[in-house]
Amino acid sequence: MFKQLMTVTAGVVIAGGLAACGSSSSDSGGSSGSGGSGGSGDITMGFAQVGAESGWRTANTKSVQAAAKEAGVDLKFSDAQQKQENQIKAIRSYIQQKVDVIAFSPVVETGWDTVLQEAKRAKIPVILTDRAVDSDDTSLYKTFLGSDFVVEGQKAGQWVVDNADTNDVDKNGSINVVEITGTTGAAPAIDRKKGFEDKISADPSIKIIASQTGDFTRDGGKKVMEAFLKSQKDIDLVYAHNDDEGLGAIEAIEAAGMKPGVDIKIVTVDAVKDGMTALSEGKINYIVECNPLLGPQLMELAKKVTAGEDVPERVVTKETAFDQEQAKQVLADRQY
Ligand code: GYE
């Protein structure tokens, strides 16, 4: 079983995660009422979701809800609207309701110890999903299921290095990068920046000339890009921490009378359908995949921890990356 869990491929997860999609609605505003997708199973899970900020997040929520139904897990679902205080409230309410297991995707890395200690005292196991916490006390959670965001940033940076010739769009010998980061303090924002910087440091002609948060939203990406276009000269490339921000940047670039993907190159992370469509049209140049379909693996882990079985402390999802040709090939089958 252990081995099976570790070797589930993205493909298998995709198939499983989409089999019973779109089954339930979610609460909002940090309340933690029943999300309605759970069956009448033995396990009750309280799931404190980050929000609904991106296409990735929507696919992730659907995957969790569908997998809970499939596994007969009674799911209590809450949407924190990207606010840590709402997630903390939701977790406290799950503790009060004496759920069997709490799963959550921490909006930012720090500030969780107190509420996680409360869960521990109540003997409710916690599973981190998608994003990690930064805490010295690893006994506060059983496992962390999700992507390696540093590797994602490295893949993006490596592509910029490997394509240095064409990325220097004005051919003046330097590649001026503007970075639209994810939510400040979030694991994927911290790690995607780090991984990217690791790789581009190999080529001194590549420079990040400006960096600002777009909060992982399309609107945020658009606003930040509008500001960059006013404040920066000679932008060659945008590195956006997710597709939605990149799609917002496309709108800003087009509104300024330029061609995204040509006059300014764009590299993003996620590979949701809208991003892949823009990639296939040549408006985005490269996308690093981040798999949102974590539901089936999460339910498998939940069953194990509630049964007192050992689980690996880290389960990393498998992912790839796409250029324009590859995007064209997989787009028709892309479900999210
Ligand atoms: O990349 C972004 C979302 O935590 C991996 O959150 C996730 C990120 C994802 O808003 O689109």
From TrEMBL:
It is found in: Cell envelope. It holds the Pfam family Peripla_BP_4. The keyword Signal applies. Its main location: other. SUPFAM superfamilies: Periplasmic binding protein-like I (SSF53822). GO terms for cellular component: cell envelope. CDD domains: PBP1_galactofuranose_YtfQ-like (cd06309). One of its GO terms (molecular function) is carbohydrate binding. Keywords: Signal. Residues 51-309 form the Periplasmic binding protein domain. Belongs to the bacterial solute-binding protein 2 family. This is Substrate-binding domain-containing protein. It comes from Aeromicrobium yanjiei.
